[in-house]
Amino acid sequence: MSHLKTLAAASLLAITTAAHAADAPASRLSLDLNLASVHTEAWARRELNQVNPGLGLEYQASPDWGAAVGFYRNSYRRTSAYALGVWTPMRLDLPGGLTASAGLAAGLVSGYHRSEVPCEPLAAGAVLRLRTAQGFGINLLAVPNTQSGSGFIGLQLVAPI
Fold first, then answer.
1. What per-residue confidence (pLDDT) applies to 152?
2. Which of 22, 50, 87, 159 is the most buried (most CB within 10 A)?
3. Distances from the Cα of 109 to the Cαs of 4, 69, 72, 112, 134, in angstroms?
């Protein structure tokens, strides 16, 4: 229940921030709302949690480098915390003022066992970020399969703060 209250508060904050920041340039700091994952293995889609609510902060130090920290309910129904470095050197300007950037994220994550994630507490994956000129958007994080675990694509909503 406390996760639902946290998500509700984060959503309210994101909405009010959006109302006040519509004309402002993109902020270096953003609120990340973790939503869901889609696992790549059929057994994982049946047995694991696909709804992964959580909250995070992202800091964009330069166009190519950033950092992200936060927490979420993982696929094994436990709370995980993460701290990641994010490198997105590939960039594409899209119609409508949208920007896509892609690269890698790597760092530390808690809440998993070695039998589930052999490299725990290390984490890494490919990142695709879509942003408006004001900094609103989504993050997609793709993590590959391991010998004992299913890969996934995770989704976050992003709002500048």
1. 96
2. 159
3. 22, 10, 10, 8, 29
Sign of the C-alpha dihedral, residues 77, 82, 85, 86?
positive
Domain ranges of the chain: 2-160
Q: What count of residues does the chain have?
A: 161
Give 81-98 pLDDT, tens digit per residue.
999 999 999 999 999 999
Whether pTM > 0.90 for this model: the answer is: no
Q: Is the pLDDT of residue 161 over 90?
A: yes
Range 2-160 has CATH code 2.40.160.20: yes
- Cβ pair 142, 123 in contact under 8 A: no
Q: What is the pLDDT of residue 5?
A: 53
Q: What is the 3-state secondary structure (H, E, C) of the chain?
A: CHHHHHHHHHHHHHHHHHHHHCCCCCCCEEEEEEEEEEECCHHHHHHCCCEEEEEEEEEECCCCEEEEEEEEECCCCCEEEEEEEEEEEEEEECHHHCEEEEEEEEEEECCCCCCCCCCCCEEEEEEEEEECCCCCEEEEEEECCCCCCCCEEEEEEEEEC
**Structural contact between residues 154 and 52, judged by C-beta atoms closer than 8 angstroms:** yes
